[in-house]
Design brief:
There is one protein chain. The protein is an alpha+beta fold. The chain contains two helices and four strands; from the N terminus they run E-E-E-E-H-H. It is globular. The N and C termini lie far apart (about 55 Å). The mean pLDDT is about 80.
Length: about 120
C-alpha cells in the first residue's frame, strides 16, 4: 500500500513582508505580513497577507529550498532593518526600475557576492 502525505499547517508564524512568495505575484498582498505555515514533516508554506488580499505560496520540502521565488537566490532568507531614509531610497530605486523591493535587494546582494 502506498502511503501519501497531505501537508497541513501544524504551526504558523507571522513575519514582516520580505518579498513575493508566489509566481505570479499578487502585489496587492505585498507590504504587510508574511504568514509562514510549517507542516509536521518540516515543509513550509508562505502567504503574504495585506487586508483581504492574499498571495499563497506552495509547500516547500525542507531540502527543496530552490522551489520558491524567495529561495531562488540560493541563499538563506534574511530580514533587513532599515532607517526610514534608507527605505525611502530603496522605494525610489524600485520605482525607477519598475521592480518590487525584494528584487532590488536581491540584485544588490548578487552584486556584493560577485565583488
Amino acid at each position: 500500500m502506498i502511503h501519501t502525505h497531505r501537508h497541513r499547517a501544524k504551526s504558523s508564524e507571522d513575519r514582516a513582508f520580505s518579498g513575493p512568495v508566489a509566481d505570479p505575484e499578487n502585489r496587492a498582498a505585498h507590504g504587510n505580513i508574511c504568514s509562514v505555515d510549517t507542516c509536521s514533516c518540516g515543509a513550509t508554506r508562505s502567504a503574504n497577507v495585506n487586508g483581504r488580499h492574499v498571495e499563497q505560496g506552495k509547500w516547500v520540502e525542507p531540502t527543496d529550498w530552490n522551489a520558491t521565488p524567495n529561495a531562488s537566490r540560493k541563499r538563506p532568507m534574511v530580514t533587513l532593518t532599515m532607517s526610514d531614509a534608507g527605505l525611502a531610497q530603496l522605494d525610489r530605486l524600485a520605482a525607477k526600475r519598475d521592480e518590487p523591493r525584494g528584487r532590488v535587494v536581491e540584485a544588490a546582494l548578487d552584486a556584493l557576492e560577485r565583488s
